[in-house]
Design goal:
single chain; 175 residues; OB fold (Dihydrolipoamide Acetyltransferase, E2P); six-stranded mixed sheet; 11 strands; 12% helix; globular
Amino acid sequence: MNPFLHLEPLAADESTGSLLEALGPMEERRPQSQYCVFRSGRERMCLPVLDVEEVLDWPILTKVPLSPAYLVGIFNLRGTIVPLIDIAMTEGRRPGLLPRHVVVASLPTDGQHEILRVGIAADEVIGTYSVNSEEVLEQAPENVPHCIGMLRHDDRLALVIDLRRLLEAFPGPSI
């Protein structure tokens, strides 16, 4: 043990008290959530950060014969085969350019240790935002079945995607 290193407990004085007063009571702080916001076609979308596994540059794809139009293909992510879907293509919002990024989302399945992964084509990854609960609107457009609300950020709105509904709206190969 080092004889020059000696730790003593911090005494509660005015400086500690003023710091706690500046933070305010715990109940007054609103809960925050984090969302990954990205653009797919002309629409901004977002997923809760806990659902996002990672964001990748466009991978090398293998096409799946006789697959639906929204299933761009499959790719290998460190030994796991991940289907890649393009939401904007099926909704008629895909401009002429191809997407540049993939947002890999993961969803725990009913199995004990199994995780279902899906890649979502993204033209641009805008960023991660911490928001208060009042910045998430529970209104969802009726014609977007995989959307459960809207996120208000930077004076814009992004559709909040529910992964379970997304996989129901865009069923693909289960790998």
